[in-house]
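Structure, all two chains, one model.
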Amino acid sequence: MKTEAIKELLYKMADDLLIIGHRNSEWTGLGPILEEDIAFSSMAQDKIGQSQALFQLLHELGEQEPDTVAFMRNANQFHNAQFLELPNGDYDFSLMRHFLYDVADQLRFEMLANSSYEPLAKVARKVKGELKYHVFHANTWITKLGAATEESHVRMQTALNDSWNYALGLFEEGPFEKQLAEEGIFEGEAALQKRWLETITPVLDKATLTIPAASTWEPKLGGRNCFHTEHLQPLVEEMSEVFRVDPSAEW
Amino acid sequence: MIKSLDPRITRENISENNTIDPLTPMDNWETYEVFHQKKRGDQHMHVGIVHAPNPEMALLFGKDQYGRRGITANIWVVKTANVFCTEYEDQDMFETTPEKQYREAGGYKVMDKINKYKKAQKA
């Protein structure tokens, strides 16, 4: 039972990282300027690396090899939030998603650094520095573009509005919330969402961007239970195309 | 439409007669010189340049251009416009320097004397 709870937590985290890592890597070579292209691609690689570390933990709990789990499933077997599978759109949306997700990811790992499940706590401590840079990168862009020109402000506000309900879907509760909290493994999605709101609000204020009114909040749920938009299956096929040519190949 | 081996390009539906807009002055940001320090206490070494709209972003880019491989303790960025330099037409100021070997430790021929002294000590 406890192992099932840990697996559920690991799967959603690993799938979030794998899918956003792949999406962000789609900017490689197409980024707005060379330096940003390299920075964004480098962070996308970090995300894939972090997902691999979590798939490795799952493997130690009896799941299949990390590559097999990552590349041999179909969309209806993924536990990522729907937010992360949405197409990249323009760079404003990609940056806003990077900001909203990466802050949540950093806070989640921060909470897990003291988890009673030591293997996960160890990963959380290891990725701390990477995440610090990712959030520094996101905060810098959001505050710069939010308050730069009228066009950049409108674009960032629109991106925030479009992202919002999907971003709330990151905190969809699972069946093991209470148990994970009681065992000291993970404090829970509600606690995470609270911290997330407290953390993003001052940054968005500084960027002169406004969080949509609470009365309009309708979290896009379902991702954690493998319900996805039509965008995930094509992503999975493209991501695993090469691997599936010969799953036994040594890379 | 352009058909590419890269599915991302094909998806963009770019016309074969796609023209590239000429650059305008705002298309390029100013440059910052990047200095990289390997270990705390070491000297910062100049490693290259990044384009950035402000110092904060120059640090972001400096980290990824020059700090994503190998070991890094610290990075400096300095706006290129704030770097003062000599003129290449004044390079003749340095012309005779290589001849002034007396300024280099290696310019002193003392090994003979040292060896002689050592020998004298041994005896």
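The CA atoms of residues 106 and 122 of chain B lie 26 Å apart.
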